[in-house]
Amino acid sequence: AERWKQFDRNPVFDEDKVERMVKAGVGRLTDMQCSDGGWGWFSGYGEHSYPHTTAYVVHGFQIARQYDVALVPGVLERGIEWLKRYQNEQVERLDNWGKKNVSQKQRADDLDAFVFMVLVDADHRDGPMLKYLERDRAQLSVYALSMYGTALHKLGETEKLAAVMKNISQYVVEDDENQT
């Protein structure tokens, strides 16, 4: 550690350079927002928003905003609205399970947990999706359970969070010295 003191600046990163990189990245992501408010692989002609990409960008913008990074007004809000519409469509598909001639799906999945977490971070609570995630939590991956648990913690849902923690604890491996 003593050797690092020879530098006049932080040898790991230059704060001004990081700030420029963040500004450029936020600008590029803003420019890539699709006309429907979401994000996809490409913007412009033939654009198509994807839920995972949109949730990922919105989550990043939420973190950026927590650190006072300047965002273009409305960009984050349009992304959140896109995710709300997507989540409503997924709830409708879940509600339709077993019906004929309608779009349907059997259970809530990992992507639903991710979108739910991002929307909870945006202070949006969706009761029907919460119900489906709770019902289907045994089929979620550990990563999705973690995102769902993060949302439950923010919502103050202590009983549901305890059940998720119990589900996750099944995957904890302890060695012979009882360390995790």
Characterization of this structure:
- The chain has helices at residues 15-31, 51-66, 75-95, 110-121, 127-135, 142-155, 158-169.
- The protein has 180 residues and is mainly alpha-helical.
- The longest helix is centred in the middle third of the chain and has 21 residues, at 75-95.
- The radius of gyration is 20 Å and the shape is flat.
- The model has no long low-confidence stretch (mean pLDDT 91).
Question: Any key phrases for this structure?
Answer:
180 residues, mainly alpha, flat
Helix content: 55-70%
Count of strand segments: 0
* β-sheet strand percentage: under 5%
Largest sheet: none
Order of helices and strands: HHHHHHH
Tell me the distance between the termini. 29 Å
**Rg value:** 20 Å
Q: Helix/strand-derived class?
A: mainly alpha
Sequence stretches where pLDDT stays below 50 over 5 or more residues: none
Described by the principal axes of the CA atoms, the overall outline is flat
Number of helices: 7
Mean model confidence by pLDDT: 91
